[in-house]
Specification:
The complex is a heterodimer of chains A (468) and B (354).
Chain A lengths: L1 E10 L2 E11 L4 E5 L6 H8 L7 E6 L2 E2 L5 H7 E4 L11 H6 L15 H13 L15 H13 L5 E5 L7 H17 L3 E5 L3 H7 L2 E6 L2 E6 L1 H4 L2 H8 L3 E5 L6 E5 L2 H4 L12 E3 L3 E14 L6 E12 L10 H11 L7 E6 L6 E7 L4 E8 L5 E8 L4 H26 L5 H4 L4 E6 L9 H26 L1
Parallel strand pairs in A: 3-8, 3-9, 6-7, 7-8, 15-16, 19-20
Antiparallel strand pairs in A: 1-2, 1-4, 4-5, 9-10, 11-12, 13-14, 14-15, 14-20, 17-18, 18-19
Chain B lengths: L2 H6 L1 H22 L7 H13 L9 H35 L12 H14 L11 H24 L5 H25 L4 H9 L6 H21 L1 H7 L3 H7 L3 H23 L5 H13 L3 H25 L8 H23 L7
Classes of the chains: A alpha/beta (468), B mainly alpha (354).
Chain lengths: 468, 354
């Protein structure tokens, strides 16, 4: 248990940390975040006893850190500071062995069996065994950082303090280091207190976050509470977007580059971008569009520039899996598969219908392609900025429109009742340019929904009439 | 470390080689000169009084006199001075994390020189001290200098980071250097005495000077050896050393004081002999690695061997005239050092920077 109780202090006559209070439980992974100059490193140095506390107290296991001897403190708490250049070419093993200094007493205490076995264990754990005999000067920054982590771990501390530990590390080693720390908190109940520069890493690994702003606590809570757009935007003075991690229930932040914010506003997707050919129907957008779609490739949520429906009957080896046929088709036509939403159907020449609608705050371009047995592919392009909800509402209204249209057509043409079966081969795409202002209020959304329902209904009827 | 493991380590070779070099240097230092003393006679001459035996019946009494009155004290003094400068240099380099640091970096030698030069210039002879006036005043001046440097460094910054200490040392060095130049400019008859002292020498000092340096050498070296693990930690930076559990402020003061004492004592008995304190630790580190638990004792052996040999060359090369020993240390030391540095650079792929 580590308690920071109303602590203020910093450098002489210049307090950096002002009245910070928090406590960290045993086995917790605790993150300290904040903009440059917010006092993260100063706070860490105060906790580690390097900088004296001006006011308040820091208690480690209910004992004030000023009452620890230096060695006692080093046995309780290890610190991995930011990497600094090293003057002398110590070997990796000698460097790590220094971590046992605090466990040695007296002038001539020698290296014991216990020391050696701890060293060997940590060498393996931190994956530095391979270059144990090498000199520090032969190692890369990332390897050196792992060596110093090993040095901190052989101190066998209850508390491990880290200052941006993933600096200098590549992606794989960042993950490896943080996984190792996380494991130590779970298995050995080691308490980790770490400064993070990268809020997304902090979000993934920390149980709780302390957000500092100008030396004061801005917020102290779980990542999901702290890493919200308004708070981060206020503290960091920049625009960010939060989004859940695709696999883990933790928020992730995305930066907003200025160029994206200022992008020109005049791109309107309409029929001039549409190409109808024998082998495929293509819409090529000059900018990537935000999409929500079903299909063979590019389905789900994403950003895409090419929208293709290719004709299944024109494909060679049409017994291959649809995905392979699609990939082949895209590559032969120079569409980048990652930038494409691809669908597949049996196209007939006059089975395509499209129309452009202009509304007050947005415009709409809808393409409907009918395949065999009334399979309907619907593309809805919105020239406007939509929230995620609007995408879902757009899908819902398009489906309603389709069901309605088919029902009306069935009545009109008295065909066999097959409407329910066709759904499995239907595909839908909602794509938005995401330019201009959000269509956020209720009235503009309802205008969009109504427009989509009307447009899709009209076009489906038209297409089905053509097919008959 | 177990004995077996120790025997297998490279340090056994290091100690054997250094010790052999040390013995050979002493033998050469005693044997060679205007009158050559047979090497076979040296052991009996030295050992018989130590063992309270007498092997010296059939040895020419002249040899015994030469060994006891001239050569042995001279060799021992050179050895102690070389050892003091080398171990102080090794400690300063480690503490200041700078392979180019030398024992003179903190202004200690300038302080000692001011003490000595003033003694010569003003012709001071303190009652009771007599001939010892110069070394005693010199060592006192050295001590006062280091205390002032530390005092001012603390005034500048209470945590006394090494950067602050180095800067303060440089300021003192310049100031005291100017003071020495002033005295040289003003001196008339004493000029050759002063210059001779400044260039450094271990000749004609006798056993009394050994008695002066010995206690300082013992205390200083033991203090440094006792802090070799802390030096290892502190050469990773004071912040890391703190995290490893080292009481940085205290250890830093001990190392600085011990190193300055060694330097002051060496300068007091032999003048400011350059190069040894810079090159010997550097060389030792290149050969045997940076671990201070071995670097310090190996530097003692190598430093004393080096200065004994340098003195030997200085008094034989243009015999019967003497060359200043400082000239020799630089003339031999620099090329040898350059050679080793170049070869080491070629063999180590990492291009270690020291």
């Amino acid at each position: 248990m580590l308690t920071v109780d109303h602590v203020s202090g910093g450098y002489a006559d210049h307090p950096i940390i002002k009245d910070v209070t928090f406590s960290v439980k045993k086995g917790e992974f605790f993150g300290i975040v904040g903009p440059n100059g917010s006092g993260k490193t100063t706070l860490l140095k105060m906790i580690s006893g390097l900088i004296p506390v001006a006011q308040g107290s820091i208690l480690v296991n209910d004992k004030n850190i000023t009452r620890f001897s230096k060695k006692e403190l080093a046995r309780t708490m290890a610190v991995l500071p930011q990497l600094t250049s090293q003057t002398f070419p110590y070997t990796v093993k000698d460097t790590i062995a220094l971590g046992r200094y605090a466990h040695h007493n007296g002038l001539f205490q020698t290296w014991t069996e216990t020391d050696e076995s701890i060293l060997q264990k940590i060498l393996k754990q931190t994956n530095v065994e391979r270059f144990a005999e090498a000199s520090l000067h032969e190692l890369s920054g990332g390897e050196q950082q792992r060596v110093f982590l090993a040095q901190a771990l052989v101190q066998q501390p209850q508390f491990l303090l880290l200052d941006e530990p993933t600096n200098h590390l590549d992606l794989a080693h960042q993950k490896e280091l943080l996984d190792l720390l996380k494991k130590s908190t779970a298995e050995q109940k080691m308490t980790v207190i770490s400064i993070f520069h990268d809020l997304n890493l902090a979000s993934l690994y920390c149980d709780r976050l302390l957000l500092l702003r100008r030396g004061q606590t801005k917020m102290l809570d779980t990542p999901i509470q702290v890493l919200t757009e308004p708070i981060i935007e206020e503290v960091y003075q920049t625009t960010v977007k939060t989004h859940p991690h695709p696999e883990v229930a933790k928020p992730q932040l995305h930066m907003m580059p200025r160029s994206e914010l200022k992008l020109e506003n005049n791109i309107k997707i309409d029929e001039s971008y549409l190409v109808v050919k024998k082998e495929h129907i293509l819409l090529k957008s000059p900018i990537p569009l935000r999409t929500l779609s079903t299909g063979i490739c590019g389905s789900g949520v994403g950003w895409h520039s090419y929208f293709v429906i290719c004709d299944i009957n024109k494909a060679e080896n049409c017994n291959d899996p649809a995905h392979d046929i699609m990939q082949r088709h895209l590559i032969t036509h120079n569409f980048h598969p990652k930038a494409t939403v691809g669908m597949m159907t049996a196209i007939k020449r006059d089975h395509v219908a499209f129309q452009f609608w202009r509304e007050n705050q947005f415009s709409l371009f809808i393409v409907v392609i009918a395949g065999a047995e009334n399979a309907i592919n619907t593309w809805i392009f919105v020239n406007g900025k939509l929230k995620e909800t609007a995408f879902i509402q757009a899908v819902m209204s398009a489906m309603e429109a389709k069901v309605e249209a088919l029902k009306d057509m069935n009545i009109a043409t008295s065909k066999t009742n097959k409407t329910a079966d066709t759904a499995s081969t239907d595909n839908i795409l909602i794509a938005a340019t995401q330019q201009g202002k959000f269509l956020s209020n209720a009235s503009s959304t309802s205008v969009l929904v109504t427009a989509i329902r009307g447009g899709v209904y009209t076009l489906i009827k038209k297409v089905i009439r053509n097919t008959q | 470390m177990s004995i077996l493991k120790f025997l297998k380590s490279k340090y056994v070779i290091a100690y054997l080689a250094s010790f052999l070099m040390f013995i050979v240097s002493i033998l050469f230092g005693i044997a060679v000169g205007s009158v050559a003393v047979p090497v076979t006679d040296i052991f009996p001459i030295i050992l018989s009084p130590l063992l309270h035996l007498s092997f010296t019946h059939d040895i020419d009494p002249m040899y015994i006199d030469i060994v006891y009155q001239i050569r042995l004290p001279r060799v021992l003094l050179a050895g102690f001075v070389g050892a003091s400068l080398a171990i102080a240099g090794a400690a300063f380099q480690g503490l200041l994390r700078n392979p180019l640091a030398d024992p003179y970096i903190l202004g200690v030698s300038s302080g000692a020189s001011v003490g000595a030069v003033s003694t010569l210039f003003f012709n001071i002879t303190l009652p009771l001290l007599g001939l010892y006036t110069l070394p005693i005043l010199s060592i006192s001046a050295a001590f006062i200098t280091i205390m002032l440097v530390l005092f001012f460094a603390r005034q500048v910054e209470s945590t006394m980071r090494v950067e602050t200490i180095i800067l303060t040392g440089i300021i003192f060095n310049s100031f005291l250097g100017a003071f020495i130049s002033l005295i040289i400019a003003l001196s008339g008859d004493q000029l050759s005495d002063i210059i001779g002292w400044l260039l450094g020498s271990v000749s004609m000092r006798g056993w009394k000077y050994i008695a002066i340096i010995l206690p300082f050498f013992m205390v200083g070296s033991l203090l440094l050896l006792a802090n070799s693990k802390e030096l290892n930690a502190m050469s990773f930076g004071e912040e890391r050393a703190h995290y490893l559990g080292v009481d940085v402020q205290r250890r830093k003061l001990i190392v600085l004081t011990a190193g300055s004492t060694l330097t002051g004592a060496a300068v007091a008995v032999s003048g400011a002999i350059g190069f040894v304190g810079l090159v010997i630790p550097h060389l030792t580190r290149l050969l045997w690695g940076p671990d201070h638990t071995h670097l310090l004792p190996l530097s003692i052996l190598t430093g004393s061997s080096f200065l004994i040999l340098a003195d030997l060359v200085s008094r034989t090369i243009i015999s019967p005239q003497l060359l200043p020993i400082g000239v020799i240390t630089a003339l031999i030391g620099a090329p040898v050092f350059a050679l080793i540095l170049m070869r080491k650079r070629k063999t180590s792929k990492g291009g270690a920077s020291c």
